[in-house]
């Protein structure tokens, strides 16, 4: 195996000191353009790969950004992770991903394992208590996406759940639906509860009495959407439309309707929330509320880079929008 080129090899090839090469790599060198170009050419010719770990030890940095997601396989969180990666592509930083699988114990384990391994952490959603998240935020720069932590309001990036749920429910109401069931997310999830409350408020404002049997809770995964729809069908209640708190549960609900011999949207209209990439390709394509999660990932990563440079940030809210496809029809 050929010997790897070293920093000294590059320096010797150009006729400068190793510290000059190191400063060029870090962007802090005060050298002529000609010298810089000669160093960069020697690096290329010698196939020199900088030792980021060694440089990090000297500078007290890891050049890693931790990302604690809930499910690495989730199309919803996948969009946010893609946004993080895109924002870091042209920087020295690399993302390090771990998932909590919606279990506070695993989320805390992930945060603990990242201590000392990353320069900052982005937390996507989660169920870990706010005070525990704040505890880690006192030890390392931290940004939250999809939840707001007291004391970290400017470092919390939210999608307006009330506005998104309003878009979904008002769309159904405008098309004549009055008996609208709801497959909600976990009651422990603030975003799920916000969507459910908006659903209740809008129906009550229309003078529609929402029966308890119209609302069934899932856990944001496809299997729970199937089980929730089965429960709605077995309740004996008649409904013309279902508002699902996320797209993945809507996929599961579609499967339950198919197995029951019911057609979407001819027999039951279905609307989701998230606009996951796969929602364009289910049958029928799912009408849903778009959450700009890729944009959220990019904004969170850029916010982290700003924090690491000592800048003040204020991430605020992202606005959802309605995506009309083919899973909803008028009901007059």
TrEMBL record:
InterPro entries: Cro/C1-type_HTH, HTH_LacI, LacI/GalR-like_sensor, Lambda_DNA-bd_dom_sf, Peripla_BP_I
Stretches assigned to the HTH cro/C1-type domain: 6-49
Short name of one Pfam family: Peripla_BP_3
UniProt KW keywords: DNA-binding, Transcription, Transcription regulation
Coiled-coil spans in chain: none
Superkingdom of the source species: Bacteria
Molecular-function annotations in GO: DNA-binding transcription factor activity; transcription cis-regulatory region binding
SUPFAM superfamilies for this protein: lambda repressor-like DNA-binding domains, Periplasmic binding protein-like I
UniProt xrefs under PROSITE patterns: HTH_CROC1, HTH_LACI_1, HTH_LACI_2
All copies of domain HTH lacI-type, residue ranges: 5-59
PANTHER family: HTH-TYPE TRANSCRIPTIONAL REGULATOR GALS, LACI-RELATED TRANSCRIPTIONAL REPRESSOR
Name of this chain's protein: LacI family transcriptional regulator
Source organism per UniProt: Deinococcus cellulosilyticus (strain DSM 18568 / NBRC 106333 / KACC 11606 / 5516J-15)
């Amino acid at each position: 195996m050929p010997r790897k080129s070293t920093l000294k090899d590059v320096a010797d090839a150009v006729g400068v000191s190793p510290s000059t090469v190191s400063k060029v790599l870090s962007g802090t060198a005060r050298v002529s353009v000609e010298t810089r170009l000669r160093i960069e050419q020697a690096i290329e010719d010698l196939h020199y790969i900088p030792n980021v770990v060694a440089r990090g030890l000297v500078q007290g940095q890891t050049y890693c950004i931790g990302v604690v997601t809930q499910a690495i396989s989730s199309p919803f969180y996948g969009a946010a992770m893609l946004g993080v990666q895109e924002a870091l592509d042209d920087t020295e930083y690399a993302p390090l991903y771990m998932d909590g699988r919606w279990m506070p114990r695993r989320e805390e384990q992930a945060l603990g394992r990242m201590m000392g391994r990353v320069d900052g952490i982005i937390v996507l959603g989660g169920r870990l208590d706010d005070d525990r998240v704040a505890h880690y935020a006192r030890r390392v720069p931290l940004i939250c996406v999809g939840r707001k932590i007291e004391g970290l309001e400017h470092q919390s990036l939210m999608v307006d759940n009330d506005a998104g749920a309003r878009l979904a429910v008002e769309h159904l109401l405008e098309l004549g639906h009055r008996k609208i069931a709801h497959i909600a997310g976990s009651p422990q999830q603030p975003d799920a509860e916000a969507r459910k409350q908006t659903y209740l408020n809008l129906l009550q404002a229309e003078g529609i009495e929402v029966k308890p049997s119209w609302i069934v809770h899932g856990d944001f995964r496809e299997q729970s959407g199937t089980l929730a729809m089965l429960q709605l069908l077995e309740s004996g209640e008649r409904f013309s439309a279902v508002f699902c708190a996320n797209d993945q549960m809507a996929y599961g609900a579609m499967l339950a309707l198919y197995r029951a011999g019911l057609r979407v949207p001819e027999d039951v209209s279905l609307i989701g929330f998230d606009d996951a990439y796969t929602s364009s390709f289910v049958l029928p394509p799912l009408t849903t509320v778009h959450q700009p999660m890729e944009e959220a990932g990019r904004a969170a990563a850029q916010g982290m880079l700003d924090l690491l440079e000592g800048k003040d940030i204020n991430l605020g809210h992202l606005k959802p929008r309605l995506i009309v496809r083919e899973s909803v029809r008028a009901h007059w």
